[in-house]
Amino acid sequence: EAQVTQNPRYLITVTGKKLTVTCSQNMNHEYMSWYRQDPGLGLRQIYYSMNVEVTDKGDVPEGYKVSRKEKRNFPLILESPSPNQTSLYFCASSPMGVETQYFGPGTRLLVL
Amino acid sequence: GENVEQHPSTLSVQEGDSAVIKCTYSDSASNYFPWYKQELGKGPQLIIDIRSNVGEKKDQRIAVTLNKTAKHFSLHITETQPEDSAVYFCAPISGGKLIFGSGTRLLVRP
Lengths: 112, 110
Prior knowledge:
The structure holds 2 protein chains of 2 kinds.
Chain A: E1 4-7, E2 10-13, E3 19-25, E4 31-38, E5 42-51, E6 54-57, E7 65-66, E8 76-78, E9 87-94, E10 102-103, E11 107-111
Parallel strand pairs in A: 2-11
Antiparallel strand pairs in A: 1-3, 3-8, 4-5, 4-9, 5-6, 7-8, 9-10, 9-11
Chain B: E1 4-7, E2 10-14, E3 19-25, E4 32-38, E5 45-51, E6 56-59, E7 62-67, E8 72-77, E9 86-90, E10 93-94, E11 97-98, E12 104-109
Parallel strand pairs in B: 2-12
Antiparallel strand pairs in B: 1-3, 3-8, 4-5, 4-9, 6-7, 7-8, 9-12, 10-11
């Protein structure tokens, strides 16, 4: 089944404890992206990647890192999480560019 | 930056009625206009999109209309069913990115 998977789906952590949210797609898509969703703010892009080894900042990149070493994987790294990073995170992929994006099921993160 | 507004923020309709959600945007260079549906506990799902060289597109019970002059596009759902209950987002492209509206919560009453 063609899909975008994220792990973990739920995560509770404490301020400053490094964490990684994994994202994987099995559709051989070039483009991958991370968004965060907060009440009243819609979805905002954190980082995106047009292809392997190519990443760029989105609208809200502060406090996040990404890497794209393989085409199928695009992990999101929070080196030192803070409470304002408590949010619902979505990974997405598309064959090429921002159009026709397929979203993962989401990761709900709570930073205490 | 791009300003995207959706109206209404909530919409309640009787099963079988039609629903219309409107999205206004500010970037006159936008040329791609998708609508996403997000069900509870799931990620957004692309349901229909339109490009600037087309005024209307239909896919069974859903349609999107575009007015580039007025800078707005609308989602139309006919013969609504309870499974249409969800949050709907418009996300016009601007500066190479999708800019998501704040969402419209649609409730279809059986």
